[in-house]
Design brief:
single chain; alpha/beta; Spore Coat Polysaccharide Biosynthesis Protein SpsA, Chain A; 11-stranded mixed sheet; two-stranded antiparallel sheet; membrane; Glycosyltransferase 2-like domain-containing protein
């Protein structure tokens, strides 16, 4: 199958960030990939949609409704409205694609039937020689997260990864087999999807020839406090993830004091102690919330 015949649908949630969304759409338009369907799912006022339809009439603009359904809800609306034959390109709004990124993701995805997820080399927009993310992994024993981060030249080899975030291509075969995202609002739904892909028999790959840029600060003093910006959800969803995918929940419980201790130090350092308490409360709630152990999560039906 030629690259031009393989359809790709880009899915982007938007919430009060139209300038970033428009910048992303410009990079998609200039990507050089001919068979692209782009969907933006807006959760704020209709102003973004009205302006977007004028500037980008080739984009499918959707509104997620009067209730805030979070990232997962907006992405899942996109799944429902996408061309059912296309690969799906999950992309946050704060990224910019390099010209051939989509083509190179598709090329890797089509190189092997077992591939379900492909993530690009994600560089900082402010420092294009430094990796923001080259795959990611949640330790299924402890819940500790590690991310491919460092000098660009250290991540020039394609490799299997557990998962990623920010930008990922999901093959049509994968979407048909495991459906859409777990409805967790935000936080940990992307590693959950990647681990479900592995459980379904697929491989997840990092492709360094596909490149995009992430508009995220590289300075520790700017990005580290942001880790606790969604503290309650992060705590709850990490625990849900570990209950669902962890190899031994007792090991996770043993490791929790060390994990929470690390974030306690961070909260004191950045004067955001209340966020640490939110993290603790969310973590506790996660032990008592219902867990869906199914690999397949149905794509919602389009509401007429």
């Amino acid at each position: 199958m030629s690259k031009k015949s393989i359809g790709v649908t880009t899915l982007t949630p938007s919430y009060n960030d139209k300038i970033r969304v428009f910048r992303l759409l410009d990079s998609i338009k200039n990507s050089g990939y001919s068979n692209v369907e782009s969907i933006v799912i807006v959760g704020d006022s209709g102003d973004t949609i009205a302006e977007g339809r004028k500037k980008y009439p080739w984009v499918k603009w959707l509104h997620s409704g009067p209730i805030d359904v979070g990232q997962t809800g907006r992405y899942n609306i996109g799944f429902a409205h996408a061309n059912p034959k296309n690969h799906m390109l999950y992309c946050d709004s704060d990224v910019v694609f390099e010209k051939d990124m989509i083509m190179k993701l598709v090329k890797r995805a089509e190189s092997k039937k077992k591939i379900g997820v492909v993530t690009p080399m994600i560089l900082y927009l402010e420092d294009r020689n430094w990796i923001n993310q080259a795959g990611a992994e949640v330790d299924l024993k402890t819940g500790r997260v590690s991310i491919g981060w460092g000098k660009k030249e250290d991540y020039l080899k394609a490799m299997k990864v557990q998962g990623s975030g920010t930008v990922m291509l999901f093959t049509r075969d994968l979407v048909n087999k495991i459906g859409c995202f777990e409805d967790w609002y935000m936080c940990y739904f992307d590693p959950d999807y990647c681990v479900r892909a592995l459980k379904a028999g697929f491989e997840n790959w990092y492709e360094p020839k596909a490149i995009c840029y992430h508009d995220q600060p590289k300075d520790d003093n700017l990005w580290r406090p942001r880790i606790l910006s969604r503290a309650w959800l992060s705590g709850r969803n990490r625990t849900l993830f570990m209950r669902k995918h962890g190899t031994n929940i007792l090991l996770y419980i043993v490791f929790l004091p060390f994990l929470l201790g690390y974030y306690l130090k961070e909260s004191i350092k950045y004067n955001i102690f209340p966020k640490w308490w939110e993290l603790v409360c969310g973590t506790v709630v996660g032990f008592f919330s219902p867990v869906n152990h199914e690999v397949y999560i149905p794509i919602p039906k389009v509401q007429e």
